[in-house]
Amino acid sequence: MCSSWVVLAFCCLGQLCADQSLKPQLAAPQLATNNPTLTTVALEKPFCMFDSSLHPNKSYTIYLYAMKETASAISSLVTDSSGKPLDSTFQQTSGGQLGPYKAALFDVPNCASPPRFADVGDVNKVSDVLKQYLFRVGDDGTCLYDPNFLAVCNPPLAPDTTYRFKYVLLDSTEGIMKDQTLWSDPIKTRRVKLPLKIDTWPGRRSGDMIVITSILSVLVFLLLAGFLASVSSAAMGSKDSSTETRCMSQTIQQSEPRPQLSSE
Amino acid sequence: MAKSGDGIRILQGLLVFGNVVIGMCGIALTAECIFFVSDPHGLYPLLEATENDDIYAAAWIGIFVGFALFALSILGIVGVIKSNRTLLLVYIILMLITYAFEMASCITAATQRDFLTPNLFLKQMLERYNKSDTDNNNDKWMAEGVTKTWDELMLQKHCCGVRGPSDWQEYASAFRSRHKDADFPWPRNCCVMDAQGSPVNLDACKLGVPGYYNSNGCYDAISGPMNTQAWGVAWFGFAILCWTFCVLLGTMFYWSRIEY
C-alpha cells in the first residue's frame, strides 16, 4: 500500500519534472539557418515530449500557442475553466498582444522514428523531412485577408518583437487538454537597419593610385622641362649659326665687286 | 655640336625601335580597352547606377589614345629616318598631348577603383533592386538596370546579396517593401534552381536549408572583373607612359641636335 503510493508519487514527480524541462525549441540551426527571420520563427515539433501521457488506443492532436512576451502580464492561460484549450485567433488577441492565440494544430510527431537530417540532401525527401521535423510560425501571408479561410490562421509575426510559444496535447475525442509544455524561452524576431545609414566612404587611398599619380606627375614635369630645354637650345643654336652666316655673306659681298671694277 | 656618324645612327636606330614598340603597345591598348568597354560580364548597369562609372571613361580614353599612339609612332619613325625637324617637332607636340590624355586615363582608373567598396554595392542593391515607385525616367532606367543585372548575377554565379543572403534580412530595402518576408526572405533567384528555372524546394530555400539556397555573396563576382578592368587600364597605361617618356626624351635630344 505504502509502496504503491510512493511509486505513484514518484510518477507524478517524474511527470512534473518532465514538464518543467520541456519547452518548444527553435529548429536546429544547422538545418534552418535563416531563423528567426523578420516575421517568422521555425520551431522544432515536440518530439518525445508527451510520450508519457499518450495512451495507445486514443487519438491526440497538438496545438501550438503563440503570444508576445508582454502579454504574459495580461494572460498566459491556454485553457478555459473546463480544461478545454482556448480557441483564440490572431485577430482576437491583436497578434498575441492580449494573450495567446492558436497558431497551428498537427498530429503528434513520431518519437520512435524521427526524420533524419541526412535525408535533407535528397530532393525528393526534403519536403517530408521539413514537414515532419519543424513548423514555421508566420508562414501564411494571405490567410488574414482571405474571408473564405476556415482553418487555423498562421499570419506573419511582427518584426523586432519577443514571442513565446507553447505546445498543448489534446485528446481529440474528448477535446480536453492532457498535457502541455512550458512556455518557451523568449524568441525575438529580427529588426532591420535602414540602408541610408550605410557608409560608402572608401577610406584611405590605395597604394596603386598614389604610386601611379606621383610617378606620372614627375614624368610629365620632366618631359615639359626637357621640351623647353631642347627648344631653347635649338633657338640659341640657330641664333649663333645665323650670325655666322651673316658675317660670311658680308665678307663675300665685299670681296665680289672688286673683280668687276678691275675688269672695267 | 657634330656627333659622330655612328652615334647618330645608333640614336636613330634606338628611336625607331622605341617608336615601333610604342605603336604595338598602342594597338594593344586599343584592343584591351575595347574589350573592357564591351562589358563582357554585364556589370555596367551597376556602375551606372552608382554614378561612379569613371573606369569606363578611362577605358574609352584608352581606346583613342592607343590609336593616336599608333599613328604618332609611324610619324615618329618617318621623322627620325628623314631627320626632318618639322615632322619631329609636330611629333613631339602631339605626343605630349597624347601623353597628357593617357595620364588622365591611368589616374582616373586607379582613383575610381578605390570607390568600389562592398558597402557601395550593398546600398545600391538595397535601394534600387526591384524598386517600384521611381521618381523619374532616369531613376526608372537605373532601377531596371540594377534589377536585371542582379537577377542574372545571382542566377549565373550562384550567389546572393553582396556579402551573403543575410543582407536581405538585416536591412530594409525596396525589395522588402514590395515582398513580404514570410514569402520572400530573399529574392527567388537566391534559391538553387532546377533545369526549368524554378526553385528546387521553395520551403527549404525560405528556411535557409544548406544546399537549397545560395549562401555566398556576389561581391567577388562583381569586384573581380572591375578590378581587372581598372588595373588593366591603369597599369598597362602606366607602363606605356614610362616607355614613351624615354622615347620622347631621346627624340627631343635628337631634334635639338640635327641641322636644318
From TrEMBL, chain A:
GO terms for biological process: cell morphogenesis; epithelial cell differentiation; kidney development; potassium ion homeostasis; sodium ion homeostasis; urea transport; water transport. Residues 238-264 are annotated as: Disordered. Residues 244-264 have a biased composition (Polar residues). Residues 1-18 form the signal peptide. One of its GO terms (cellular component) is apical plasma membrane urothelial plaque. The keyword Transmembrane helix applies. The chain crosses the membrane at residues 209-229. Keywords: Membrane, Signal, Transmembrane, Transmembrane helix. This is Uroplakin 3A. The gene is UPK3A.
UniProtKB/TrEMBL annotation, chain B:
The keyword Phosphoprotein does not apply. The keyword Transmembrane helix applies. It comes from the Eukaryota. It holds the Pfam family Tetraspanin. Keywords: Membrane, Transmembrane, Transmembrane helix. It is a multi-pass membrane protein. One of its GO terms (cellular component) is apical plasma membrane urothelial plaque. Its main location: membrane. It is found in: Membrane. The chain crosses the membrane at residues 12-37, 57-81, 88-110, 233-255. SUPFAM superfamilies: Tetraspanin. GO terms for biological process: epithelial cell differentiation; response to bacterium. Belongs to the tetraspanin (TM4SF) family. PANTHER family: TESTIS-SPECIFIC EXPRESSED PROTEIN 55 (PTHR47110), UROPLAKIN-1B (PTHR47110:SF2). Heterodimer with uroplakin-3A (UPK3A) or uroplakin-3B (UPK3B). This is Tetraspanin. It comes from Aquila chrysaetos chrysaetos.
